[in-house]
Amino acid sequence: MKEGLIIKYYRERAGLTQTQLGEAICSVTHLSKIERGLTQYSSEITDLICKRLNIDLIKELEKFDMLEDKLHEWLDAMVKQQKEDIELINEELAQNPYLHFSETKYFHSILLARYHLMQGEHEKGKSLLDSCQKAWNTLDRFEQNLLEHTWGMYFLHIQNCKEAILHLKNINPKDYNNHEFYFHLATSSHLMNDKVKAYYYGTLALSHFRETNNFKRILDTETVLLIQMGTNDLCQFEETVKQYHTLIKSCRSHKEEAREMNLWHNLAVEYFAKGFYSEASEVYKRLLDQCEINPNPPLKLSAIRGYVHSCLNLDHYKKQNLRILLDEGRRLAEQFENKTYQYVYYMLDILLEDKDINDYYLFLEDTFLPHLHELGNSTLINLYETELFHYFRKSSQHEKASRLAAKHFEPLIH
Q1: Domain boundary residue among 178, 199, 223?
Q2: Do the domain assignments include residue 345?
Q3: Which CATH number does the domain housing residue 105 bear?
Q4: How far apart are CA 229 and CA 239, in angstroms?
Q5: Cα–Cα distance measured from residue 347 to residue 359, given in angstroms and rounded to the nearest whole number
């Protein structure tokens, strides 16, 4: 069958009809059956056909057979985040003439979607995933699980944690040996503020990455687990800060700049959430400086929010400097069509310009928090609901304050 597909490909590429190719070699009917894999054929016939097409059938079969192994190699490089290997294999695959009509075409399409997600090209990735979804019944079990995994990654990229979890939970680990998906379940659960599940899935991911000697992803997973250990106890929080610095030092020694930046970001979030605004502003500023050297738009969006908000809480800042940062953040949010941060900067603008504070909290309650709940971003939900709770108390809106308090503390009672 493979031989027939190869012959058909090169015949069409040469612009020959079956009659022209088979002339003085075999009948049109026989050639048609060879191309469709419906008949036995002699090596003499295939030798003559390949000579006319000017191809080496053995080498072409090698190209055909290497596809699946090369695709698994590409997936492994993506999981390990080996950038040079990812690009090299992508180029090799692009030169393989059988990529789009072999039995591995959907495998390749799903991986190509993941590649586009890594590049921040979300719509390109989604388009490929949509095409593969339509062919669901033709996918084998590994490909179906791979598709669910990549859908989960897509929804994580666009900050829709609820949809991400729905897809990731459809994966059967017995049919899918890439247990990296546990890391994405841990990340989604963390963003949904489900610390128990985040820790559980994180430990499964950590075990998988240790078994596969994937140091980079070990660091990522330890970071997620560290966040789940956050506490309001000052002594324990000091220990948490020390653990952050230990991981940061490890990243630096292995020249993992992007992971170091993520750790600084998470530490800044911890400081801000506990009301240590001075420390938070210092770490956010450090992160902003790093973003100038190593551009990272998602982190920069968050760092601008954190730095400006920290400075506003400290009440000592140069307004013009914060205005420049907010304008830069707004342009970046519009460029990446990030509605979440467009809303964030709109609210921070109200605070910076000393506009009616009621407008800020009205927008927070009626527009921004419903938007966050739709996405399932519990990290920001907790941050802004706490802020709203204090506003309700100060403005004597006791019923609303009670509802928010019950929502946050009821799980602890049960």
Answers
A1: 178
A2: no
A3: 1.25.40
A4: 10
A5: 9
Query: Is residue 78 domain-shared with residue 137, that is, in the same domain?
Result: yes
Token pair of 125, please?
A: 């990735």
Question: Which segment of 45-49, 162-166, 410-414 scores lowest on mean pLDDT?
Answer: 410-414
225, 203 contact by CB (below 8 A): yes
pLDDT more than 90, % of the chain: 67
CB 332 within 8 A of CB 300: yes
Query: Does the pLDDT of residue 2 top 70, yes or no?
Result: yes
Residue 221 has pLDDT above 90, yes or no: yes
In a domain, 61, yes or no: no
- Max Cα separation, the chain? 96
Q: Which helix (H) or strand (E) holds 118?
A: helix 105-118
**pLDDT tens profile 88-137:** 999 999 888 888 776 788 999 999 999 999 998 999 999 999 999 999 99
214, 230 in Cβ contact below 8 A?
A: no
Q: Which domain holds residue 99?
A: 66-178
Please tell me the distance from the alpha carbon of residue 373 to that of residue 161, in angstroms, as a whole number. Answer: 10
- Residue 383, amino acid: L
Q: Are 57 and 46 in contact (CB under 8 A)?
A: yes
**Is the pLDDT confidence value at 230 over 70?**
no
Domain total of the chain: 2
Residue 409 has pLDDT above 60, yes or no: no
Q: Which DSSP string corresponds to 140-202? A: -HHHHHHHHHHHHHHHHHTT-HHHHHHHHTT--TTT---TTHHHHHHHHHHHTT-HHHHHHHH
Q: Given this model, what pLDDT does residue 235 score?
A: 67
CATH number at residue 6: 1.10.260.40
What does the pLDDT read at residue 102?
66
Using alpha carbons, list the distances in angstroms from residue 155 to 117, 119, 175, 188. Answer: 10, 15, 22, 10
Integer-rounded Cα radius of gyration of the chain: 27
CA–CA dist 349, 341 (Å, integer): 12
The answer as to whether 265 is a domain residue is no
Residue 246, domain member (yes or no): no
Backbone φ/ψ region at 121: left (φ over 0), alpha (ψ -120 to 50), beta: beta
Instruction: State pTM to two decimals.
Output: 0.67
User: At 379, is the pLDDT very low, low, confident or very high (cuts 50, 70, 90)?
Assistant: confident
Residue 133 Ramachandran class (φ > 0 left, ψ -120 to 50 alpha, else beta): alpha
Q: Are residues 32 and 97 in the same domain?
A: no
